[in-house]
Design a protein that fits this description.
about 375 residues; alpha+beta; Outer membrane lipoprotein wza fold like; wza like fold; 5-stranded mixed β-sheet; 9 helices
């Protein structure tokens, strides 16, 4: 190779170029660490963002009662109001007893032993049969009023008659107890029969065997007593478990006591649906799903205000839910909990007392039918 002047010039230029490149400072360790920290912050920021999104997603999909946006029209009784109402119910026993069909009396006429009658009963038409005067209707009267009425009848035959009625058995008053008691049925109310006596008369709460252990089958938390169209504020846990006497009120004629099973997690749907019935509770059950189980609602149904009764009937929370908006996708579906009672009315719902008047006959009917079905299939 011939080295000339141009060759040396080119070689010199290449060397200078290499020297220049080699003199460019390389990134320091500190600069690398800084970039690494910046990248870590960006990665962590992204992770936090994703975690928040995942948490929100988990929250939206978790089992959660959706109550926002629903009107609560009844949120239970306060303790003082409950106590006051129970004290009033205790005073009912001080009223005069009203005679009814089936009641048994011994009748004594002062100074007229031949007119005395032992072991007579009030007939189904409300009357008793007496010597000389025949049938006298005394049903619906207090015992004092009945004695005065009989005395008036005898005045045609006796001077200043004095009549005494001595009851030996009361059969005209009865109560019904159903559910998880050993002997459900209808029983007579004797003098001053109280709620705790009703459980004893029905031979106690039902028990069963699970895992070789005896367990009580009664759900006292949701047990209730109904009088006419009103559920009384009797707390069966306070009564049975704690022996709280204020909840042990005297029974009245036609009182209805129901003690549900602790093993069945049920929900009820009543009112304007094609199959009003209890249904087994399933996790994540919603109001619209329950309506489907009840084979849909009738044309007469008012689905703009559906009542969902949660908790005990003596101390409930009542939600008003717009089922129409749910079905149209305008609001979220309402989560159902075990033992909820859903009532779809045919008209506009009023306050809690109005709802209760509409709910109780249907609830009574399906509970009785359900229990009879359970007895038949056992």
């Amino acid at each position: 190779m011939i080295w000339n002047h141009k060759t040396y010039q080119s070689l010199t230029l290449v060397c200078i170029l290499f020297i220049f490149i080699g003199c460019v400072p390389s990134p320091s360790p500190e600069d690398n660490n800084q970039k690494f920290l910046i990248n870590e912050k960006e990665i962590q920021k992204e992770k936090n963002k994703n975690n928040k999104l995942d948490a929100k997603k988990r929250k939206d999909n978790s089992y959660k009662v959706i109550e926002d946006g629903f009107e609560i029209i009844h949120d239970g009784l306060d303790a003082q109001k409950t106590k006051s109402e129970l004290l009033v119910l205790h005073n009912v026993s001080k009223k005069d007893y009203v005679v009814g069909a089936g009641d048994g009396f011994n009748i004594f006429v002062y100074s007229e032993p031949e007119l005395n009658i032992k072991g007579t009963r009030v007939k189904q038409d409300g009357s008793i049969t007496l010597q000389l005067v025949g049938d006298v209707k005394i049903a619906g009267l207090s015992i004092n009023e009945a004695m005065n009425k009989i005395a008036t009848k005898y005045k045609k035959y006796l001077i200043n008659p004095i009549i005494t009625l001595v009851p030996f058995e009361f059969r005209s008053k009865s109560f019904t107890i159903l559910g998880k008691v050993s002997a459900p049925g209808t029983y007579q109310i004797s003098h001053n029969t109280k709620v705790i006596d009703s459980i004893a008369i029905a031979q106690g709460l039902s028990i069963g065997i699970a895992d070789n252990t005896t367990i009580e089958l009664a759900d006292l938390e949701h047990a209730f007593i109904r009088r006419d169209n009103k559920v009384l504020p009797v707390n069966f846990i306070e009564l049975v478990r704690k022996g709280n006497p204020i909840h042990n009120i005297p029974l009245m004629d036609k009182d209805y006591i129901y003690i549900p099973s602790s093993l069945n997690k049920e929900v009820y749907i009543l009112g304007e649906v094609n199959l009003p019935s209890p249904f087994g509770f399933k996790e994540r059950m919603t109001l619209s799903q329950l309506v489907v189980l009840a084979r849909g609602y009738k044309k007469s149904a008012n689905i703009n205000k559906v009542a969902v009764i949660r908790g005990t009937l003596t101390n409930p929370r009542v939600f008003l839910v717009n089922l129409s908006d749910i079905l149209e996708g305008k609001i979220k579906d309402f989560r159902i909990k075990p033992f909820d009672i859903v009532f779809i009315p045919s008209s506009v719902l009023g306050d809690w007392n109005d709802i209760l008047k509409m709910v109780m006959p249907s609830l009574n009917a399906i509970q009785s039918a359900y229990i009879l079905n359970q007895i038949a299939t056992d």
